[in-house]
Amino acid sequence: MSICASAPGKAILFGEHAVVYGRPAIAIPLSGIRARAIARDTGSPLTIIAEDLGQAAVKDYAEESDLRDPLALTAALTMQYLRTQHISGEVRIRSDIPIASGLGSGAAVSAALGRAIAALNAASIPDKDLNDLVFEVEKLHHGTPSGIDNTVVAHEKPIYFIQGNAAEFMSFGAPLRIVLADTGIPALTRDAVADVRALVANAPAEAKQILDEIAALVNEARDYIERGAPQRLGELMTVNHQLLKALKVSTAELDRLVAAALSAGAYGAKLSGGGRGGNIIALVDEDSEERVKENLAQAGAKRLILTDADAGS
Ligand code: PMV
Predict the structure, then answer these.
(1) Predicted TM-score (pTM) of this structure
(2) Are 294 and 266 within 8 A, CB to CB?
(3) Ligand 1: distance of its center to the CA of 146 in Å?
(4) d(CA 190, CA 212)
(5) Which atom number of ligand 1 is nearest to the Cα of residue 273?
(6) Of the listed 69, 96, 129, 149, which one is catalytic?
(7) How does 132-162 read in b/e, with b if 16+ C-beta sit within 10 Å?
């Protein structure tokens, strides 16, 4: 018998990068794209097969000592959490979340794997504890993660997030219709985060002003999300993109996709996640959706995902 554990991708609606400096951010789960971990008890030492991540099976994860490997670290932390040193079985990872594109692939794989390993031990991990566990693994991917990815992925709920505070789950006045468009360019969040750190160190006053402007905008956006006011929310997304540009994490490709979405009638658009590549998000409605998708494809988007964000997504 096998069991399937899973976790969603995620998109940051507002506040990426600034969130690393104590400012708020808003993120949503992408329930339609998921990492899955299919576990079956084989009676042999734990084996993890992750072809979708470009990794062949690594035998005997219980003995695997290279904790710089996210899968090995997830397995080790899960066993530590379960207070066991021996888990037998096979876990096969399947993921349709693009890697290194700001959609939370790393956090989702860790969350799904942790759940699957717990299931092999006839246990389950409460979302809150899984969140803490995945955060430890996120440090490998991100260096100094804010914790937003693991939180939205582990709980699978839209969140208003400030580092160090408990996440606040959000209510939505109306669902938001969002198009994600992928530049197809993989980018490492840890590099973008490091470059922003250098900018903050070299030009602290200028950086503080940008970060504070983002914080004010996130709080305003929260209000519009709760009231269901897409027009104003879209405008704030576009302003957030300009501020991320000022932090030097945008690129010509991201700017081109944002411009394409706006010229096709999106309420607003911005890069989402670490930047330097990965995805933009555009806020649309039923009337503009098709036009926006066509324009994004023409502007070079490699993949388009449509999602409805609301408190239940
Ligand atoms: O994982 P990504 O690429 O969506 O980026 C996470 C968001 C950042 O704010 C850039 C980093 C962080 O740890 O919050």
Answers:
(1) 0.93
(2) no
(3) 7
(4) 22
(5) 4
(6) 149
(7) bbbbbbbebbbeebbbbbbbbbbbbbbbbbb
